[in-house]
Design goal:
aminotransferase, binds pyridoxal-5'-phosphate, alpha/beta, single chain, 7-stranded mixed β-sheet, about 15% strand
C-alpha cells in the first residue's frame, strides 16, 4: 500500500470559505452578479509607480535570485520607513525580505518553535498561524478572546495560559478577522509578560498603514527583542507579488538567513525592485488615498450592519474586516453564509475559518469592494435577512 500523506499535512484544515467560493464562481459563471465580501485583499491593483518600477526591473534583467536576506537597498528603505513612521532606528541588518508575510511566518516559526512547543494565539485569529506551527511540529494554544479584551491577547491572558510547553505569543495588530489594534502600552505589557517567561513575542503588523483615524504603534517602539512580521500585500497593495519582511533581534539573523537560503533561496527579485518604489512620496500619497477610501467604506458598512442587527461590539480600527455576531438572527454561520450566497449572491466568510470560539455565531465581511457595491450588498443583506429562517 502506498505511504499515506504526512500527519502534519492531514492536520491542516482547508479554508472553509473555499467551498463557498467555488459555489460563488459557479453562480458567477451562470451569469449572476456575485458581490464578494469574503476576499482578504485590497480590490485596488498595485499603484502605478510600483508597477512601473517592476516593469523597469524586468527590462533591466533583474530576474535572478537576490541575497537570501533580500536587496540591501530595500532593507535600507524599510529601515528608513521605520524611522519616518515610528521614530525607531532599526539596523537594516535585522531586516529579512521574505516571500510575503507568509514567508516571514515560516521563518519565525521554524526558528523559534521546537516539536511539542506552543505559541499562544488569540481565537478568533488568522487561521494559517496555527497551521505554520503544526508544520514545524509545534502547536497553537488558542486563547478565546471577545469584545471585553478587544479580541486581543492581554498580559493577564498570557500569564494565565502560559504553561511548561509555551515558548511564545503571536499577536496581530490590526488583527484579522476583527480589525482591532493593540496600543503601545498593551504591546509593552505583552512584551513584559512574555519576557518574564523567557518567551518570544511575535507581532504581525501586516495591516499597519490600514488604520483609520489613528496610527498603529509598532512593537519595535517598546521592545527591541520582538519579532515583527510585515508585508507589502495589504497597505502597499502588492498581494500577488509575494513580498514581505521580518524584523528580528540581531542574534537571530544568522540562523534566519540559513533558514531562508534553504527554504526559498530568496524572495522574488523583480518584486523587490518594484517595492523600492513603495516609499516614494508619489506612491505613498496614492496609498494614503486608498486608506481614506477604506475608512469611508468602514464608516458606511459598520453602522449599516449594526442597524440591521449584527453584533459588532467594538469598533474595528484597522484592516478591512468587520467580524460580526449573528446570534440575533439564529442558526449557524456556515448555513447563514450559504443562504446569502444562494439567495442574494453575496459571499462572506463563516467564523469557522478563524478558530473555534463562538465561531458558529460569527461571520467576517471584508470591505474590499467599492462603496456603491457595499451599498448594494447592504440592500441584499436586508432582503436576505427577511428570508432567513435560522
Ligand atoms: C493576519 C495575516 N497575516 C499574514 C497574512 C499573509 O499575507 P501575505 O503572505 O500576503 O503577506 C495575512 C493574509 O491575509 C493575514 O491576514
Amino acid at each position: 500500500m502506498a505511504h499515506t500523506h504526512s500527519a502534519r499535512s492531514r492536520a491542516i484544515e482547508p479554508f472553509h470559505v473555499m467551498a463557498l467560493l467555488a459555489r460563488a464562481n459557479e453562480l458567477q459563471a451562470a451569469g449572476h452578479d456575485v458581490i464578494h465580501l469574503e476576499i482578504g485583499e485590497p480590490d485596488f491593483t498595485t499603484a502605478a509607480p510600483i508597477v512601473a518600477a517592476g516593469q523597469a526591473a524586468l527590462a533591466a534583467g533583474h530576474t535572478r535570485y537576490t541575497a537570501a536576506r533580500g536587496l540591501p537597498a530595500l532593507r535600507e528603505a524599510i529601515a528608513g520607513f521605520y524611522q519616518q513612521r515610528y521614530g525607531v532606528t532599526i539596523d537594516p541588518q535585522r531586516i529579512l525580505i521574505t516571500p510575503g508575510g507568509s514567508g516571514a511566518l515560516l521563518l519565525a516559526s521554524s526558528l523559534l518553535v521546537d516539536p511539542g512547543k506552543h505559541w499562544l494565539l488569540a481565537d478568533p485569529g488568522y487561521p494559517c498561524n496555527r497551521h505554520f506551527l503544526r508544520l514545524v511540529e509545534g502547536g497553537a494554544q488558542l486563547v478565546p478572546v471577545g469584545p471585553d479584551v478587544n479580541y486581543q491577547l492581554t498580559a493577564d491572558l498570557v500569564e494565565r495560559h502560559w504553561d511548561k510547553d509555551t515558548v511564545g505569543a503571536l499577536v496581530a495588530s490590526p488583527a484579522n478577522p476583527t480589525g482591532t489594534v493593540l496600543s503601545r502600552d498593551q504591546l509593552a505589557s505583552l512584551s513584559r509578560a512574555t519576557r518574564e517567561h523567557h518567551g518570544h513575542l511575535v507581532v504581525d503588523e501586516i495591516y499597519h498603514g490600514l488604520t483609520y483615524g489613528m496610527d498603529a504603534a509598532s512593537v519595535l517602539e517598546v521592545d527591541d527583542e520582538a519579532f515583527v512580521l510585515n508585508s507589502f500585500s495589504k497597505y502597499f497593495g502588492m498581494t500577488g507579488w509575494r513580498l514581505g519582511w521580518l524584523v528580528a533581534p540581531p542574534s537571530a539573523v544568522a540562523d534566519l538567513e540559513k533558514l531562508a537560503q534553504n527554504l526559498y533561496i530568496s524572495a522574488p527579485s523583480m518584486a523587490q525592485h518594484a517595492a523600492l518604489a513603495c516609499f516614494q512620496p508619489e506612491t505613498l500619497s496614492i496609498l494614503e488615498e486608498r486608506r481614506a477610501e477604506f475608512a469611508r467604506r468602514r464608516d458606511f458598512l459598520l453602522p449599516a450592519l449594526r442597524e440591521l442587527g449584527f453584533g459588532i461590539a467594538v469598533e474595528p480600527q484597522g484592516a478591512f474586516y468587520l467580524y460580526a455576531d449573528i446570534s440575533a438572527f439564529g442558526g449557524d454561520a456556515f448555513a447563514f453564509c450559504r443562504h446569502f450566497l444562494e439567495t442574494e449572491h453575496l459571499a462572506f466568510t463563516p467564523g469557522l475559518d478563524f478558530g473555534r470560539h463562538l465561531a458558529g455565531h460569527h461571520v467576517r465581511f471584508a470591505y474590499t469592494q467599492s462603496l456603491p457595491r457595499l451599498e448594494e450588498a447592504v440592500q441584499r443583506i436586508a432582503r436576505g435577512l427577511r428570508s432567513w429562517q435560522g
